[in-house]
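Hi R.,

As promised on Friday, here is the backbone we talked about, encoded as structure tokens. Could you run it through your design pipeline when you get a chance and send me back a sequence?
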């Protein structure tokens, strides 16, 4: 993580360290990343030299998930960040907005496919999954044996069952294996950029469709009645 604002860095690091160690760099001349193993992800605070720092990091780690955080980027800078394969998040003081990016990084590490990472990120960003549900989904996608998941998540078997029920209900799957298969299928078909596609119609969608069918029937009846009168 490259950041000069200590408050921002602390808030972000508090989130990141839940999952991995954080290396904090606060000087543009500090090229410590050049000697590091590939990181899980790169976080750069928005500043006048943020893009220069990101460009330098990209020479060493061209494909590592990266994000620029904060409010200091104009439209041109945001476009340049996208060209460097980095997203931009104008996060709040508590840094809650960094969580979707974290789960994208964890997913890409687990399955080695950025399309799946983007899809999981979109699910978390849309508020469809809690952090615990997203963590469970990542472990399922990584094909971690179910018996090992409670220990990995530091939760009880009963808590795992509760998270599993919620995850399957929200993403409309009958079991975790079918859910994983569907996540991969949706991600690969859409390039990871599409929103989640419901497995079946929601109650609202069915109601709207029923209203449309009723309206169509009413119109047909009305037209038939008019024709009879004209005849």
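Update: got your reply. Pasting your designed sequence below so it's all in one thread:
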């Amino acid at each position: 993580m490259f950041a000069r604002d200590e408050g921002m860095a602390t808030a972000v690091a508090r989130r990141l360290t839940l999952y991995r160690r954080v290396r904090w760099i606060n000087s543009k001349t500090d090229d410590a990343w050049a000697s590091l193993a590939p990181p899980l992800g790169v976080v750069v605070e928005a500043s006048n030299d943020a893009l220069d720092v990101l460009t330098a990091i990209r020479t060493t780690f061209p494909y590592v998930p990266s994000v620029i955080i904060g409010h200091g980027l104009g439209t041109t800078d945001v476009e340049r960040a996208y060209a460097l394969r980095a997203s931009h998040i104008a996060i709040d003081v508590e840094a809650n907005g960094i969580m979707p990016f974290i789960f994208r990084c964890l997913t890409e590490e687990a399955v080695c496919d950025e399309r799946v990472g983007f899809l999981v990120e979109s699910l978390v960003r849309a508020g469809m999954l809690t952090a615990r549900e997203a963590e469970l989904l990542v472990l399922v996608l990584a094909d971690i044996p179910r018996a090992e998941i409670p220990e990995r998540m530091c939760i009880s078997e009963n808590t795992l069952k509760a998270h599993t029920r919620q995850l399957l209900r929200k993403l409309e799957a009958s079991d975790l294996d079918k859910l994983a298969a569907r996540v991969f299928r949706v991600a690969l078909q859409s390039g990871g950029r599409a929103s989640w596609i419901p497995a079946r119609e929601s109650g609202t969608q069915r109601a709207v469709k029923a209203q449309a069918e009723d309206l169509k029937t009413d119109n047909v009846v009305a037209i038939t009645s008019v024709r009879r009168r004209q005849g």
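One thing I noticed while checking it: The chain is about 55% helix and 5% strand.

Thanks again,
M.
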